[in-house]
Amino acid sequence: MAAIAGIDKGKYVGFRLTNIVASLYNAHNKALVDPFSFFFGRFRVSRQAVLKDNLEEWHRFEAEKKTFEPVFDPDRVVNAYTGEKPDGTPITERMKLSELSLELLVENIGRWVRHKYGNKNLLREGSNKVFSDTDVQAPHEGEIWLNGNVRIKGSAVGRGKFHSVSIAGPFEASAERLGNLHCDCEEFENVLRKHGYTNGQYLCPDIAALLYYARYTPNGVSNLEAVMARRNARIWLPFHSFEVQPATADYRVIKKGQQPRLSNLMVTAMLFYLTQKQGENKASINKGLKRLEVIYDPLLKRLFGQGKAGAAQEAGYEAIAQKWIWDLGNEIWSPLRAWKNEMHNYLTTRAGFEFKGLVVEKEKTPYETVAMEYVKKSDLGHSVRLLFFGGLPPLVVERRVVPEHKVDIFALEKKSYRKPKPMHFYEELYAPKITYDYRRCRFTFSEVRFAHEIWNPQEMMPDYYKALQHFYGSNAIGRLAIQINRIRPPQLERLNVPKEFDSADKERYLILVNTIRKYGR
User: Fold this and answer.
1) Which of 50, 360, 483, 513 lies 20 to 30 Å (CA to CA) from residue 467?
2) Mean pLDDT lowest for which of 5-9, 53-57, 412-416?
3) What pLDDT digit, counting tens, does each position of 291-300 carry?
């Protein structure tokens, strides 16, 4: 949104979303499972002849008339190589991907791969050429480990030719599925640092490639076939980038009709990845992929749905940010850091909450925001999220699970769901409602508010006042007071919220709002 007069945007920083992943909540780690990694892994492992067939099929399909709503923009325009001038200078044009001839499509993919990685190995190497020293370690006690070296995607100059990959709990029946992940690639280490106070282990494309290879080429992994036979187990892929049964030969958008084979989806996802534009990243791809029920392993869907109202789910969607902003040191305005520290300390030391990670609020709207989530230890259906915006002072959103609303990963894709008009968080202050929780994948009771539990830095009050006037007009405080004093939704009774919730919170709300008016003028 545009800057608000009188507020210095530089004082307020927010998290920049770079990826959306499915998180598995294990006892020892949090596996951050990237849907796109499995499509990248399949592309990586495929032999040249198979990739050629995939590209030919994709090209034929793109020329056909569509009777459905595509997941990704079918009219994507890219800078494409179309030939050379007499002096050998390359000619590039802006054109739709679907308008490229098969020959030019293959040529451009090679150029995009070379531009990204410095070579064309993604197209040249497949199957066992990508891996070395793959094996399964199966101790008599403890978890099974799948290990291997995965060839690096870029140049090997100045470094080894392979990344070392290890996966504990690689089977569907593992006690802790993907309970420990390791890859020495830069992406894995970067995500581990960016996820703040949690042990978030990122399932990168190299880890996904080894899982995919082990699933479909078990004889290429030392000791794997013997362990699978002895334990009656198979490698687990949370997301499928390959048709595993006839019923899933077509994938679908829930709103409309049928779409092509997953090999076509793999090509499309890779094309979008290789031709990323400004503002696009893996989150842009995964927002599309996670809409498709057919790529979900049945076990993963069950993990999303585990737990009764207020109980823990074993999987949920979380956000990966470009950086952990609190590592910026002196670049963070001290009152903003103080606000975060006060809220973090209050929630974790006095209120019984635990920091769980980063989540997306208002996904795929103009007001999409990455928030820090804290979950109540004694009531796992109760969470508090800290909202940080670029250019605006922070807010809080509180969520409580509503028992009658069950987990539904694809609820927003159904025709019965009428999407409300997108509103900024400031426009929803003290207006409790039922909204979709993108982490839990279910509708929950939510309320946006100020942080009334702590002392709010006085230096931020004038900016809160200006923001309120921007969204509510000159009588902003009066309008908020009316909103606070409204009768609360009846759902509160069914959520076991204490009787004093209304009066106690209303009083604190009004005190803080009047404090903003006092210091803001």
Assistant:
1) 360
2) 412-416
3) 888 899 999 9
**Residue 495 gets which letter from DSSP?**
T
Cα–Cα distance, 295 to 286 (Å, whole number): 12
Can you tell me the distance from the alpha carbon of 88 to that of 103, in angstroms, rounded to the nearest whole number? 18
**Per-residue tokens: 285:** 């791809």
User: DSSP characters for 169-211?
Assistant: --BTT-SSTT-EEEE-SHHHHHHHHHTTTS-EEEE-HHHHHHH
> Residue 500: is its pLDDT beyond 50?
no
Residue 186, C-beta contacts closer than 8 angstroms, at least 6 positions apart: none
Q: Which amino acid is at 515?
A: T
Neighbours of 31 (CB within 10 A): 26
pLDDT value at position 20?
A: 97
Token pair recorded at residue 241: 């980038």
The kind and range of the H/E element at 343 are helix 334-345
Q: How far apart are CA 74 and CA 65, in angstroms?
A: 11
Dig out the tokens for 19 from the structure. Answer: 């990826």
Of all residues in the chain, the percent with pLDDT exceeding 90 is 55
Is the distance from CB of 336 to CB of 14 less than 8 angstroms? no
Say what the pLDDT of residue 502 is. 47
Structure tokens that stand for 67 in this block: 């009777």
DSSP character for 346?
Answer: I
Token digits for 516?
Answer: 């903003």
